[in-house]
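Amino acids appear as letters; backbone shape is given numerically. Here is one record.
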Amino acid sequence: MTFEKDSCKENYERLPKKFYHLINDYPSIRKGCSAMANEKILVVDDEVDILELMTFNLAREGYRVFTADNGEKAIKIAKSEIPDMIILDLMLPGIDGLEVARVLKSRENTKAIPIIMVSAKGDESDIVSGLELGADDYVTKPFSPKILIARIRVVLRRKSDEISDHSAPLHVHAFMIDPQRREVTVNGNPVELTFTEFQVLHFLAKRPGWVFTRSQIVDAAKGDNYAVTDRSVDVQIVGLRKKLGDAGKFIETVRGVGYRFRERS
């Protein structure tokens, strides 16, 4: 068997042997894979059949696949490989899926990895718990591999769009907000902001007219070196408006809800 890319050879070698006879039917595994060939996906599930099925289907689409059958292995692989996506079962022996997500989202080098949770548990409370921990999507068993792969593509595309969105300078009204340089100017005049103030301003200004609750603003302003709470959002807004001077009027209070960035001048 010959391969055009090393990553495709890795896909083949990771496949369960019972799928080897199907390789010729799926040249994406053997040849150039696809445009997504270098994206790594970690599949975490204690059911061997599901691991094998997902490995085959993801490899067929050109993804580089890693697997773990328990939470401890999942954390170890995530830390060493830094996958582009994790498919995470909730019901795992030892450390369960929610705890795995909690650990990964608390660490700097793994917190940005998108997670799709998969489980036979369909209770609303489980879905909410997973999403609140930072999961990007939630799928219940039994599921169609095609549907899961479609959701994987959506989440990866959204991640890519967010990276592009966050890196490009934002021009709105009299503001220029540069996320990479972390610089803000109003009518060409520089405005010195704290890290948290910058996060809040950038988050609101990206979507003029949209109303955000204090909790949503807290989530957008989270970081390792400072604390933000619902109450302190109001303090941050007061300080931000003061530094912006007359331009502070663009940050509007929506009574009983939160704040928004004015849509029109």
User: Anything to note?
Assistant: The two ends are 64 Å apart (CA to CA). Residues 168-261 form a domain with the Arc Repressor Mutant, subunit A fold (CATH 1.10.10.10). The chain has ten helices and twelve strands.
